[in-house]
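Archive entry. Fields below.
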Amino acid sequence: MFFLSLIEHTLRLPPHLLDLPLNEAIKGELESLFLDKVIANLGLCISVYDIRSIDGGFVFPGDGASTYTVEFRLVMFRPFVGEIITAKLKESDANGLQLSLGFFDDIYIPVHLMPNPCHCEPDPENKSQVIWIWDYQEQKFPIDGLDEIRFQVQSVSYPPIPVEQPKESKPFAPMVIMGSLDYDGLGPVSWW
Amino acid sequence: MSCRKKANAGALTNFEVLDFLRSRGAAKDPTRVIAPIAASEFKVYDYLVESAACNQTRESINELLEKCKKYDLAKAEILNIINIRPASPVEIDPIIEESEKRMGEGIEDLIEMVTTVLPPPPTQMNTEEEVVAGDEEIADGEQTATAMATEN
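PREDICTED_STRUCTURE:
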């Protein structure tokens, strides 16, 4: 689920941080730049693991701040295809399920990757949502929000940033994970 | 401005990330305001603490790696096993490809080894019949990556 990525970045250190020790100031700048942001093809940045080297410190003409070239490692969240992850149900509608990990919400299980065969029923408690039920050997197994759901990662995609978005649509998701429940041992933990 | 020198400088198990966050001062409430950890990192900590990684130790993972060598598993499969801690053959099925062909009877041995070496996560502890005895020490303070963070 997590990887280390080695990154080199040229950083401008604002002058108001000059009273801090260099390591702390650079770490703070890196955190505000990268933390909780998605880097294309690398994943979601969770944390700065360590700083390998700091180079430079030159002040360019006309600028009040010094510029450093920093080499550091980030802890990235990037599940690989085929990984099994346990998540909680966030929403379920006619197109499939949406699962959440707490720090990452854009996990979708589309209808064709649900366990076969299954059907959906309108949820009596919540009008806009449906409950998915798996029909297996004449028994019904509903997917309710009570326990955690195990799924297998099918693909991780990074849709390009749209130029314009219609007003009512969902906020843009820079990283989307497609999951599958269609295998033995997957689905809500209580099923197995 | 930035270039990635190595997109993949090593895989981390959930335990290693949890250990790293703990060594920086993350803990359950109420020290949240004082610790130098961002809110988004706390969300990751909350997720990991409820997963199978919260009871693991560095020693137990090293022991598991040693014992897994004879089963000839892929690195991704071992990573999945450490993160999920399967307790029955049906849970191993999605993790190991063609498990019956490759291992046959060995699946039962593998599961027994996993359940004895790795401590059960809090949610599984209520449903498991066997009580896993042994000391549970939670490793603290080390920031060095373990054998999993090898260069590809």
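CURATOR_NOTE: Chain B touches chain A through 43 residues (CB under 8 Å).
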